[in-house]
Amino acid sequence: MSIRSLLFNDVIKKSIYKQHRLFSCWSCGKDVQRVVPALFCGHCNAIQHPMKGENYFKLMGVSESYDLDENVLAKKYKELQRYLHPDKFASRAKQEQEISERYSSLVNEAYKTLLEPLTRGIYMLRLRGKDIPENTEVDQQFLMEIMEKNEEVESAESEEEIMALNKENKAKIKKLQKQVSTAFFEGDLKRVIKLLGIMKYYTSIDNQIQTSIRSKGIIR
Amino acid sequence: MAFLVTNIRRCVCLKSFSTPNIVQTASYHANVIDHYENPRNVGSLDKKDKNVGTGLVGAPACGDVMKLQIKVDDNGKIIDAKFKTFGCGSAIASSSLATEWVKGKTVDEALKLKNTDIAKELSLPPVKLHCSMLAEDAIKAALSDYRIKQQSGEKQ
């Protein structure tokens, strides 16, 4: 193993070790101490339950911010699953297998939620006790624009057309993402709700575009 | 081997939507699937026609947009209805059913249409109730657009 990969491994391990937890291990009953990594008991090496009430950011070990680095999140995800995936527990005790299943699917859910700018925003909104309202939108000019975009996607036939729409729509979502970030930073939740509502429409259009790209067999 | 067999059966069931056991295997009710697969009255009416009312509504919680139009004859009876919806199966089914129901009704009768009736007919689960609400709002918006057009027509 080269020095570089040693250093790299050390950095990742340290970041997982950072989540210290103080409680006794369910398996051997001994106190789990500070220096012991969060995922396993330092005495008997049994996998530990995920912390109750811990939010997805803490679970994934990333800082709680709308502007999270998706590459860092992906790295953390892979690292966690390397330790938690049920495949690693095939020969372990049944209870450990169950914990690993639960923990691993929770990590999947957390990763999926935090990765997408829309679901991340909605999740952060919910952490603040707010949600996107279910009332009906009536801004005619805006709805007309959304309707037209949907129709454009529906009628796009050539690869060029659909890819141009894809590029345009992705840019739109990116721009909204920046605005949401600013609104979160300023603590303006009303604006966050408004912006995420708009983002939802464009994300729906994005889904439609991706379906169209797949059905046309376009390889990128 | 047993798990393989059940998996295959499930795939077959999901593909052949017309078989009666679809109600057990699919999460959508048969009525929703019927309207989703064979939507009634998809299309557009002439927006500028003074006998046509247009309702355009959206749901920020799910990103659905719905356009519903009605054409009213001189006796105040709805003779045609069209819709165009970009959204989930329940939203499409709700607006399809709504256009079917308002056809042949008078404007006043159509105003009484409730989302709960749509939800009941389609057996929508609680999480999908807002889709039927969107259809009700679309009808209301179309009727109100028609009224405004008629009133401004009288003034001229």
Walk me through this protein's architecture:
- The complex is a heterodimer of chains A (220) and B (156).
- Chain A is mainly alpha-helical.
- Chain A folds into two domains: 26-115, Helix Hairpins (Orthogonal Bundle); 140-216, Up-down Bundle (Monooxygenase).
- Chain A contains eight helices and two strands; from the N terminus they run H-E-E-H-H-H-H-H-H-H.
- In chain A, strands 1-2 form a two-stranded antiparallel ribbon.
- The longest helix of chain A has 27 residues, at 159-185.
- Chain A is elongated, with a radius of gyration of 22 Å.
- Residues 17-21 of chain A have low confidence and may be disordered.
- By secondary structure, chain B is of the alpha+beta class.
- Chain B has a single domain (30-150), classed as Sufe protein. Chain: A, CATH 3.90.1010.
- Chain B has helices spanning 2-15, 22-25, 30-37, 89-102, 107-111, 115-122, 129-155, and strands at 52-59, 64-72, 78-86.
- In chain B, helix 4 (89-102) packs across helix 7 (129-155) and helix 6 crosses helix 7.
- Chain B is elongated.
- Mean pLDDT of chain B is 81; it is low at 1-25.
- The chains are: A mainly alpha (220), B alpha+beta (156).
- Chains A and B meet through helix 6 and helix 8 of A and strand 1, strand 2 and helix 7 of B.
- Chain B: Belongs to the NifU family.
- Chain B: InterPro entries: ISCU, NIF_FeS_clus_asmbl_NifU_N.
